[in-house]
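Quick question, first post here. What does this chain look like in 3D?
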Amino acid sequence: MHFEKRFKNPDQTYRPKMRWWLPGAFMEKDEIKREIISLVEAGYGGAEVLYFMPIPSADIAPEQYGDYYFGSEKWNDCMRAALETAIEYNFKLDFTVGPLWPIATPALMDKDDERAAHGLHVGCLDFTRLFQGKLLIPDTIDRERKRKLVAVSVAKKSLDKQLGLVATYQLDSIQVLPFSEEDETVEWTALDDDEWTLFAFWAQTSAQLNDAAQAPVIDHLSEEATKAVIDYWENSLLSDPYIRELYEKNGGDLFCDSLEVNATMLGGMYDAEPAPVILWTPDLLIEFKKRRGYDLAPYLPALFIRGLFQTTDNRNLDRFSEYEFEQPLINRSIRHDYYETLTDLINEKHISVLQSWAHSHNMKLRYQTYGLPTDMTSSLMSVDVPEAESLGFKDNTESVRLLSGAVHMGRKPIYSYELGAVQGKAYEQQWTGADGLLWKMHQALAGGVNQVVLHGMSYNSSSVTGPVEPIFNWPGLSLMGTAYSNEWGNRQPIFEHSRMMTDYISRLQFILRQGRPRVDLAIYRHEYDGVNYSMEVECSSLQQAGYTYDYISPVLLQLDNATVEIVDGEPVLDSKGAAYKALVVSQLMNRETKQLEGPKVNVEVMKKFIHLASEGLPIIWVGDQMLQPISYEDANHFETINSLYKELTSFSNVFVINKAELGELTISKGFDTIKNNQVASVRRQTDSTDLYFLYNQSTDEKFAGTITVKGKGQPYLLDLWSGDITALQNNSLASTGFTFNLEMEPGETKLIALGKLKETRKEADYRETTEMFLNKWHLAINSWEAGETPTSTVINKYECQLDDLIPWKEINGLEKVAGIGLYETRVLIPHNVSRAILDIGCASDTAKVIVNGEHLQLNQVSWKVDIAPYLFKGENIIQVEVATTLHNALSLYDHSKVPVNYGMMGPVKLKLTNSE
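> Answer (accepted):
Ran it through. Tokens below.
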């Protein structure tokens, strides 16, 4: 199929996915099929099957509940029906590794099992001269459960420095002591009368449970634990050869959500009182020494940052530990070695094991590799489909870029995004508006994302019993309740407009997966906990100057493709990938002090920088030297690192600048516009075409200015809403690109192509225009209202005549109405027109335009569409159909829901251009 047809009607591969929350096997096969077919018809390309938790139907006896759990015959029977339907409709199903998350398996139900997640606890006792007796068991330990004494040490308190939040110690005083594990006692005598501390380190499983299975979360650092998950799949979910064949024929993703693994459940899962407990695994001391070359036991006190391994928004690697040694660089380097070991273990014993198994069944591994202090870019090397999310990344383009370097240098064709997961907004979250789903998606696409998975849709349970029955109200059981985001399925009026939204997304995803990425700059960044805490929320100075960029880490510089070659006369890094034209070595924000610090480097990284510079790659070093060593070994070779820095900066193509000068770089770029612009760009390049996705990131400021893009051939404007392709004529064309004037409404996107395409629509001839205001409308609303059961909806009709457009909540009798409204007006056109821009001003939530019976695709951001081809001289009927969420209707029953603006708010304008 030609490019033009594929752009107009992208196939299933490029269509967005839906997260699908299921109530265990308490489902009907006919309803499963109906819901899949409804998603297909709505333009979705797949669904992520998520066993949320078992929600029994009212007609099921409690003693039968076990028959409906994850991996049961009834669950497998439901999955058989889902897979058969999905395969028939070329609809891809993805499956979570276990029931809900964090990852657990029904094969592992004992919370004291060695394969469950572990925490390391510390008990401290101060003494002078002699300690003899029982070791302290800290309050963070559950004394009723198994525990294991891992190590015992002593250290002398420092009298000169106070770094630790509890105490600071002399590094050379630390001693690891023998101990009796049987009676948990120690005897040791100091050689002086100074104050000492005895540390006892205890390991215990965290008792963190997976809500859906009430099974303990597995140890993500243990291959045996990962194999327990795999064995359950093999023995329970795939034991039937026919079902196994269906899974493999479907060929979807095996999906893992973010790493919400707690080292302790003291105080609960979320936002508990921070505790000094760290993540552990039984073999960690052995694995650490094998990988880092020294014994971690003496330095264990420096690891205990309070609350770091609890799921909370307050985690901060830059905080001081409870117990520090006198040398700050040593403390941080030891912690970095510990985090690197966690990264190694989760990569080798968990992620890569899952990936290999997924491949053996024709599945890919999609994983959100963040949430713990690990190097998430390193983890992505064993992931087929990296994924970020609205919640953890806060829809911040800068945060999304943290993974884009690994996506591009790791040759990952798809970068996925869990779209719309935000706290609250149940039945209120919309597609449009300043915080709507389109805004969230555009923010992610600007950072390199090219696949979205909507969060989400609940299965339409016909009846419910058990603890959730009290919330089984109209319009049905929402498995996320009011906690997160919206229901995007067919229980809401906005679902009726899904196809135009999914068509738009599909065209975007199609374009953003073509050819190769082309990115101006690679920014070196090494840290272990980098979701968003130290990222800039606003556009960076580099983006404001028109540069595109990725963040890359040491592991990416070790790849075979991290080499310099000459492309179009310029040295670039990774020529067959993003082709970065320069490397920026940036400073990092310390989350505790809020001060900028130098980059974290080691001897190997500095030598790589020198090699790249020697090959001609421009390197821009931001700030003065201010280097930070990565590992304990690096801290001991800091002089070598500093000397390598001096060697690096002796190259003529290495520039040391301050942060304020970042926007003044002279490195060439693929996209350019006015200085301090708010337009983000993404460039994809095929053998014959350059494609530019442009996005006005401002939520309140229109962009009007000159745009310059590089490439060869005829420039085209590709309409992402209609699928039309128009050749652009009014521009300044050069051999390497073209310059043109562009206007973009706040939040609007444009797609420019350079190459040779077949246009499907001619560019309008701009002439003097006349403007008409359309104020008077007839409004007919199909109101969605509660029926006799929680899952039944009745439609009642309301009509009114409007002399001025106002929100429904301001119309008497329609204050709490939700549904689909049809506005209609008649317009007299006195002459033929070549261009007629209908601007409906504003609508909530989505709107369709119908002109003389012809349905047009309205731009849902600018609210404009050219209706000239469908107008004729004389009287014309213009209709606008608006679909809403159910929020206002639900405010009848929930007084905490304050009605919001629904309908077409206008002002509606029609700008006409004469054809002659």
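The longest strand covers residues 118-128.
The CA atoms of residues 813 and 845 lie 20 Å apart.
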